[in-house]
Amino acid sequence: YEWEGGPAILEYADQDQGAGMRAKTVWHRTQHDAGTYGSSLLRSMLGARSFEFPKSLYAVRDTLATVVGNNPSALVVDFFAGSGTTLHALGLLNAADGGRRSCILVTNNEVSSADEIALLAEGTRPGDDAWEARGICRSVTWPRSRCAILGRKEDGTPLSGDYLTSDLAEVEVPRNFYHLG
Questions:
Q1: Which residue of 87, 109, 135, 176 has the smallest Cβ count within 10 Å?
Q2: DSSP character string of 108-172
């Protein structure tokens, strides 16, 4: 991961034929593998809870770096928060360069199709505590965000692994969590 700031420029592989050509991909890094740095990473943080097809933490970090890498006080709004990868990746950017970027995650706490069928069969309806507890926000987005920000799992054990930012000193920083009902 090397970021010098400024916008990323994609060029056509063959400038003479550029009009009809697609740009070559820039997503060829091992860290961009969604299986290892998306699904497996999320499973290591949350255990049995799951989210289908989370993006690679590092692919999102690199994408955000192209847009807000040179703005250490940027505000990023993710209207389709899913598993919370955007907030997690923004935290990596901040940790790497001392930025104070903020992130607002928006989600509707939907349940998966399979959960919806099972919950309806049990007589559970949207708005019931059992239904809401299985929603994406309560079961994945919120716990992942809390774990990523605090650096520890819900049981208090520290997150393991190298998050590929740099050598960082531990510093206590006041954190605020707000859950808007």
A1: 176
A2: --PPPHHHHHHHHHHT--TTSHHHHHTSHIIIIIHHHHHHHHHTB-TTSPBPPS--SS-------
